[in-house]
Design brief:
The protein is α+β, with helices and mostly antiparallel strands. It has helices at 30-45, 69-83, 88-95, 101-107, 115-125; strands at 2-10, 13-18, 23-27, 53-56, 61-65. The chain folds into 2 domains: 2-65, Double Stranded RNA Binding Domain (2-Layer Sandwich); 69-125, 434 Repressor (Amino-terminal Domain) (Orthogonal Bundle).
Length: 141
């Protein structure tokens, strides 16, 4: 799984963001901006050994990914929940769960949701919003 991002020149800096994660930073060069976004995500995840790879694309488009899918998925779910100001209990209630532990396991990276469950989790976090999957090439240069 990789997440889409956007990088653009603003004045003498390169602004860069991965909007689904609500992570934004900048660099003096495009290359530095890519390094900064990877570092920002890794710092926010704060898990030893977790690494982010940046896949530069065409024009303003790029993608980020990690071989640690459980941690990346957990971070995405946690950021979406925080972005909406929800507690674990509130998300669990939206899912119809009696305990917040089931949902919390996804945010802790202890469980990786199936695509169907992932869709349900995102819908509980963001009712009325759709998340669009886009096919990408292994190498997007």
């Amino acid at each position: 799984m990789r997440l889409a991002g956007q990088v653009l020149k603003v004045g003498k800096y390169w602004a860069i963001e991965v909007s689904i994660l609500s992570v934004v930073t900048q660099g003096r060069t495009k290359k530095e901006a890519y390094e900064m976004i990877a570092d920002a995500i890794e710092s926010l995840v704060n898990k030893k050994g977790f690494n982010v790879e940046v896949f530069p694309g065409k024009d303003q488009y790029f993608e980020v990914g990690s071989t640690d899918l459980a941690t990346l998925t957990a971070f995405l779910l946690r950021r979406q929940r925080m972005k909406r100001g929800l507690t674990l209990m509130e998300v669990s209630r939206r899912l119809g769960a009696k305990s917040h532990n089931t949902y919390a396991r996804y945010e802790q990276g202890k469980s990786i949701p199936t695509i169907e469950k992932f869709s349900q989790l995102l819908s509980a976090l963001s009712p009325g919003h759709d998340f669009v999957l886009v096919e990408s090439q292994s190498k997007i240069h």
